[in-house]
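TICKET: design request
STATUS: open
ATTACHED STRUCTURE:
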């Protein structure tokens, strides 16, 4: 038996930002975004269609932490009358921040207590979100959780609530045309990880696997061409659509081992999330092969019959993009690497992985090159 559910209404297409007024529907809205000129310009376009924002939160940083989110929630809670909807304009960090603000209408302390001990759920609020992603990777526009970082204690939390699914995702690939090469690669590899991790996943189902196979196949085919032609709108459409399908895949499965490995690498070494969660994919794939007929069948739809050769091609794909698969290049020695693997296998995301620790240990050599 299996189930699949996703309540987000998706509007996809070049130029679709012009329809945002119809999504906001004259409601007072809070805009959550970055404090950068390009986002000021897009915010002005939104204001011309939907009217000015009742509140604009622009203090979002990469990997939003307790301090930044506390300030954002305080701004939101102090706004009267309270905004009726939140517009999240930006990448994954903006989506995460917007979801925390949506839950933190009574202040961040309520969210913090819930993250740390699972208590105080009744104090969390629920404000509708219209998600407008400007990167092709996070998938957060179609998921119900947010990644929250406690940098003081070196911990990563996941805020997970059904009410955090955006009501609408407005995906306009035109907003992604100006993305630089490094960001294009990092975000697309995050989406690739979402897709593959939903296949070697205990929570996989035929719908999530179908979405994942399409997404991974498209990213593998399109990304090398896109990085050499960053202004190509057709390729931007393809990669944005692939990222959306990857989001729909892992919205039901969550991620698995590669993501579990990645979080401390980002915290300790500052490695961008999309790189941290993707450089280990060939190793993880090798440890997953042969574990599940269903998983192998999904991977064969992407890589062909010889899955061992497919893992080699995946590694070559990353290297050709300039992404090292050598853990030492990220400042990780053998001792830390083994500690990361052991910890990841028992972590919340690692437990979704279909493979065993023994199988992963057999593949550790791939992480040492």
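STATUS: resolved
RESOLUTION: sequence designed for all positions
ATTACHED SEQUENCE:
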């Amino acid at each position: 038996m299996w189930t699949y559910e996703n309540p987000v209404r998706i509007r996809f297409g070049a130029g679709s930002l012009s329809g945002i007024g119809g999504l906001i529907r004259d409601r007072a809205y809070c805009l959550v975004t970055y404090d950068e000129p390009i986002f000021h310009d897009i915010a002005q376009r939104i204001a011309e269609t939907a009217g000015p924002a009742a509140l604009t939160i622009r203090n979002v940083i990469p990997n939003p932490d307790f301090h930044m989110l506390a300030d954002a929630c305080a701004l939101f809670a102090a706004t009267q009358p309270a905004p009726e909807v939140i517009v999240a304009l930006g990448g994954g960090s903006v989506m995460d921040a917007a979801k925390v603000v949506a839950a933190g209408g009574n202040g961040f302390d309520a969210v913090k207590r819930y993250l740390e001990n699972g208590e105080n759920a009744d104090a969390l609020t629920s404000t509708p979100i219209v998600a407008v992603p400007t990167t092709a990777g996070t998938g957060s526009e179609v998921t119900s959780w947010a990644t929250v970082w406690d940098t003081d204690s070196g911990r990563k939390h996941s805020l997970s609530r059904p009410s955090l699914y955006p009501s609408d995702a407005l995906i306009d690939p035109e907003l992604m045309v100006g993305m630089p090469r490094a960001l294009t690669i990092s975000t697309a590899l995050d989406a690739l990880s979402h897709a593959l991790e939903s296949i070697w996943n205990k929570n996989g189902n035929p719908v999530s696997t179908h979405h994942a196979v399409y997404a991974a196949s498209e990213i593998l085919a399109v990304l090398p061409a896109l990085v050499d032609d960053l202004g190509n709108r057709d390729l931007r459409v393809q990669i944005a659509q692939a990222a959306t399908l990857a989001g729909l895949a892992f919205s039901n499965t969550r991620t698995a081992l590669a993501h579990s490995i990645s979080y401390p690498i980002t915290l300790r070494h500052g490695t961008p999330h999309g790189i941290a969660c993707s450089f280990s994919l060939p190793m993880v794939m090798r440890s997953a092969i042969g574990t599940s007929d269903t998983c192998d069948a999904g991977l064969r739809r992407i890589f062909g019959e010889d899955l061992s050769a497919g893992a080699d091609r995946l590694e070559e794909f990353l290297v050709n993009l300039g992404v090292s698969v050598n853990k030492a290049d990220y400042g990780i020695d053998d001792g830390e690497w083994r500690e990361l693997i052991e910890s990841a296998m028992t972590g919340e995301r690692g437990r979704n992985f279909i493979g065993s620790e023994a199988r992963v240990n057999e593949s550790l050599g791939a992480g040492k090159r």
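CLOSING REMARK: The domain at 179-367 is CATH 1.20.1090.10 (Dehydroquinate synthase-like, alpha domain). The beta strands are 9-12, 29-32, 55-57, 85-90, 129-133, 145-150, 155-160, 168-171.
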